[in-house]
Amino acid sequence: MKPSNLFKTLAFILIFLMASCQDENELIEAKVVGFNANKCMCCWGWTIEFNGTVIQTESGIIGEVVGYEITEPIRVYIELGEKDEDCPLTEGGREYYEIDFIRKVN
Asked: Taking a C-beta distance cutoff of 8 angstroms, is the pair 13, 5 a contact?
């Protein structure tokens, strides 16, 4: 392999790795405190607490990481996505958000 091609390949790999790494500064430490399986408006989904805020989410990645049986709070790191909707029917009018990333705290 020519040195110029090797340099281009290494530069591409480095850029790819940098883009795929999750910046710890963007993550929020939170707790998944419950899951509601009722299929009704503003019911279904996971309840997440962080920094004194309580939100709901329907993001399926939560189920893949923490599951559906939440018997005690599960500490996680999350990256909030877009706001989905306001739900005035929930306690305190909780809002639904997409969760773009989640990882359990070790």
From this structure: no
Q: Are 103 and 85 in contact (CB under 8 A)?
A: no
The string of pLDDT tens digits covering residues 80-89 is 998 887 776 6
Q: Position 7: which residue type? A: F
- Spatial separation of the C-alpha atoms in residues 20 and 90, rounded to whole Å: 36
Per residue in 24-45, pLDDT (tens digit) is 558 999 999 999 888 777 778 8
3-state secondary structure of 96: strand
- Token reading at 93: 């009018």
- Round to whole Å and give the CA distance between 106 and 65: 13
Helices (H), the chain: 3-20, 60-66
